[in-house]
Design goal:
homodimer, alpha/beta, Rossmann fold, 2 domains, 3-stranded parallel sheet, 10 helices, 11 strands, about 40% helix, globular
């Protein structure tokens, strides 16, 4: 079993980006600039946004964190998005999800200029992905593809089972893996809560990508010997033995599953850092489009 | 075995649309108006466009056929699209594909206003489909979903194998069948030219949707007893015994396969008429959005 080390892989990507930023600076040009909008004070969201700002600093991007009160109206948020769309000094921006219940997330996503939508959530960018046109691929699927690419995992003709059909992970992941590309060219099955004989289906997978948000759902009996297992799940579980008061648990029962795998990611240091690196890649892309 | 009769099903849809047009007329409003752009004189394209115009007449839509010489420049076609985008009397329009080799199809598709893109080919509409937002679903997948719906084929939890991963049929079909909807909620496998053990995979399908453009590719040994088989293939094969000089051949070896199926479509009177009806449905939708 070899660990797919998203941490070191993402470090490598960050170094490559930092190198590119140095080149941009050397020409006297403006460096890439990412803005992040954070509504309210959700703990997990605070952490994610803080990471994104830190990542920008590390590679030499400019970054702006825009905090808004959790009681702002939908219109106030839409107005802010309008400002960011129009601000030529900002290459790309993200609105950290989830939003408070009184704000329509779809409305917010649709308001973002697709050219600045570095999360890749807008219909136009999702559609470009399907059509094989230049686009911002949403961060998690993009990060997983990058991980497979850098570890030179063979995907062509393999059976890839994607557990989960969400708009931002499962569905785009399935499409990317089925496309005529490398990584890609896999026979892909999209499985979900209504799938019958799920264990048998998972056992038929050469590559198993799990994104359902159910802790330790995938057990050893669901994994074929020699499979590649990618765990997207990241659930905070209370743990008083930890300083933070919680620990992260994946969708895969790592300890039991790992010895059956050729490659596997761990809940921390796996898909997470690759997702973070993808946002930087998309922001760099947004900058070079100018 | 029961034939999925796209012809009678599409007739029913056309009647429903005609009824709706009569209601629109009764209010004194303008009826839906579809324009079709035909570049050059390709035989198949001529036929398809003629059908589309005829369908419009039958349900009471206005229609406009715009013929352009096969030697027009890309810019001339883009200018025409600009005109159609701006013309308030036209609800939706299509540009018949394929286009002559000197014209970039993607550029043309991207020039169409997504609100008038009744073929559902624009990135924004494809993305809306993935995101479950209101959209124009491209005609063939939409027609197949309608056929499954009207025949009340059970799809939830079934294994649906989609053979073919094209942008306009295979990929959107796979997504629609995997979505939380009815029809939908199927476990979907996307198979293609790089898929290994294709026959065995097809035999595992409760629902087999074939869109690869290879005549009679699916043989009896590839079909499970009781499967639902949808044949999207329509290839013209020379046949001097026919008045037209050709006959249509599907991707499925119908005569050999049919007795194994619970439901099956035939190459003519199956998916084709449903595709045509879908364009009318999308045009009506474009009209009601005004």
């Amino acid at each position: 079993m070899q660990l797919l080390d998203g941490k070191s892989c993402s470090q490598q990507i960050r170094q490559e980006i930092a190198q590119r930023v140095a080149e941009i600076k050397a020409t006297g040009s403006r460096v890439p600039h990412l803005a992040a909008v954070l509504v309210g004070n959700d703990g997990a969201s605070e952490t994610y946004v803080a990471f994104k700002v830190k990542d920008c600093q590390e590679v030499g991007f400019d970054s702006t964190l825009i905090r808004m009160d959790e009681n702002i109206s939908e219109q106030e948020l839409l107005d802010k998005i309008g400002e960011l769309n129009a601000d030529d000094s900002i290459d790309g921006f993200i609105v950290q999800l989830p939003l408070p219940a009184h704000i329509d997330e779809n409305k917010v996503i649709l308001a973002i200029d697709p050219k600045k939508d570095v999360d890749g959530f807008c219909p136009e960018n999702v559609g470009n992905l399907i059509l094989g046109l230049p686009t911002y691929v949403s961060a998690t699927p993009n990060g997983i593809m990058e991980l497979l690419r850098r570890y030179q995992i063979e995907t062509e003709g393999k059976h890839c089972v994607v557990l989960g059909r969400s708009n931002i992970v499962g569905t785009p992941m399935a499409i990317l893996m089925s496309r005529k590309s490398n990584p890609g060219n896999a026979t892909v099955t999209i499985a979900h809560s209504r799938t019958k004989n799920l264990a048998a289906l998972c056992r038929s997978a050469d590559i198993l990508i799990v994104a359902i948000g159910k802790t330790e759902f995938v057990t050893a009996d669901m994994v074929k010997d020699g499979a590649v297992v990618i765990d997207v799940g990241q659930t905070r579980v209370r743990d008083s033995s930890k300083k933070s008061g919680f620990r992260m648990v994946g969708d895969v029962d790592f300890d039991k599953v790992k010895d059956k795998c050729s490659y596997i990611t761990y809940v921390t240091g796996g898909v997470g850092p690759m997702t973070r690196a993808s946002l930087l890649q998309n922001t760099l892309k947004a900058h070079s489009r100018l």
